[in-house]
Write a structure and sequence with these properties.
Layout (H helix, E strand, L loop, with lengths): L2 E2 L10 H13 L9 H21 L6 E4 L2 H15 L6 E5 L4 H11 L4 E5 L9 H7 L4 E5 L16 H4 L4 E5 L11 H4 L3 E5 L10 E5 L24 H14 L3 H22 L4 E2 L7 E5 L5 H10 L2 E2 L15 H5 L4 H4 L2 E5 L6 H23 L1
Length: about 375
């Protein structure tokens, strides 16, 4: 029996999403920008999904822009916003624990005349708000802070940013948060929000950028302007699959959260019972446990578990092949020997208590072996 515990990296597409993807691919393959009947039918599919997504976010459908995924959404939001606001200033604030889609974008802007302040994280995984307040300047045009950290599951205080810097635009990478916590732009008080389909049991290659009505951002790629500020032929089938999952999310977050929280708490309890010296890094989201073990290398443990049919990660899937200690755990000042032996376990509603029990026993077995091996 294989046990998949890497849902923060990607999720298994739901049967409903796959069925809709195949149906639309077979029947509504016309270009949604075409003026003929087949184009108009494809356009209707997209607009239905746009409405479903807007309903899940409690926003206007005109504020939903479809993209190729979370990375493009982050890039478009950050680069598009600061270029549009360059007459007001060139200062950006972000945190040291952001996804690399944000960090590398900010690094690119630094190389092109912008100033970026990178805020530290506290030991509990939250961004240091006091430091952030001190970093705000009159020429600050954008603050980008993720809603829920993809490695530790720590929920960030995004809703406080607008009161701290009312003159700045607020962007939040909500890729991990969507469907896991109640999420609306109004509650978070954000101007822009990034989402991704393959994190919510839809398919890869489709994402969303929410842009609040009245916020001006400029394109970062040019072509047919199919989504206004975003050019490129629309991924009709992928968007339809996203809409299916967005509709399932709408109003169901609290029930899903209760279920996932119960399983996460059970997982953490069982781990600490079997491995008392295990360290939980950061606060726990309903679906993520970042656990550290001293005298163990995370990537070695990952492969040992893989051989037993259990799949976890050592951090963000985008950088999991790196042997460096996670930049998130470094920013949290996690003890290096613990950070080096940390793995990320991420659950879905498909995760069962039977799978959790087996995974815990296998983690104990492998960590015991690796600790003994290292002491030799």
């Amino acid at each position: 029996m294989e046990i998949y515990l890497d849902n923060a990296a990607t999720t298994k597409p739901s049967n409903e999403a796959l069925e809709e993807y195949v149906r639309v691919s077979k029947m509504y393959y016309g270009n949604p920008s075409a003026l003929h009947k087949m184009g108009l039918e494809a356009e209707k599919i997209i607009e239905k999904a746009r409405g479903q997504t807007a309903a899940s976010l409690q926003c206007d459908a005109k504020e939903v822009i479809f993209t190729s995924g979370g990375t493009e959404s982050d890039n478009l939001a950050i680069i598009g916003a600061v270029r549009a606001a360059k007459h007001r200033g060139k200062h950006i604030i972000t945190s040291k624990i952001e996804h690399h889609a944000v960090l590398h974008t900010c690094a690119y802007l630094e190389q092109n005349g912008y100033s970026v302040s990178y805020i530290d994280a506290l030991p509990n995984g939250e961004v240091d708000l006091d430091q952030l307040k001190q970093a705000v300047r009159p020429d600050t045009v954008l603050i980008s802070l993720m809603a829920l950290n993809n490695e530790t599951g720590t929920v960030q205080p995004v809703s406080e940013l607008k009161s701290i810097a009312p003159h700045a635009l607020i962007h939040s990478d909500c890729v991990q948060a969507y469907g896991k916590i109640p999420l609306s732009p109004a509650d978070l008080q954000v101007d822009m929000m990034s989402l991704s389909g393959h994190k919510i049991h839809a398919v890869k290659g489709v994402g969303v950028l929410y842009v609040r009505k009245g916020v001006h951002i400029v394109p970062i790629s040019y072509g047919g302007d199919q989504e206004g500020i975003r050019s490129g032929t629309m991924n009709t089938a992928g968007i339809a699959a996203f809409g299916v999952q967005a509709h399932k999310i709408c109003g169901s977050e609290e029930e899903s959260m209760r279920t996932l929280k119960a399983r996460r708490d059970y997982f953490a309890q069982r781990l600490l019972e079997e491995i008392p010296d295990a360290v939980i890094n950061g606060q726990k989201a309903v679906h993520i446990l970042n656990v550290g073990f001293e005298n163990v290398r995370g990537e070695v443990l990952l492969h040992a578990l893989e051989n037993a049919g259990i799949y976890v990660s050592t951090g963000s899937a985008c950088t999991s092949k790196s042997t460096k200690i996670s930049h998130v755990l470094q920013a949290m000042h996690v003890k290096p020997s613990v950070a080096q032996g940390s793995i990320r376990i991420s659950l879905s509603l498909d995760t069962t208590t039977e799978q959790i029990d087996r995974a815990v026993l296998e983690i104990k077995k492998q960590t015991d072996f690796l600790k003994k091996f290292k002491r030799r």
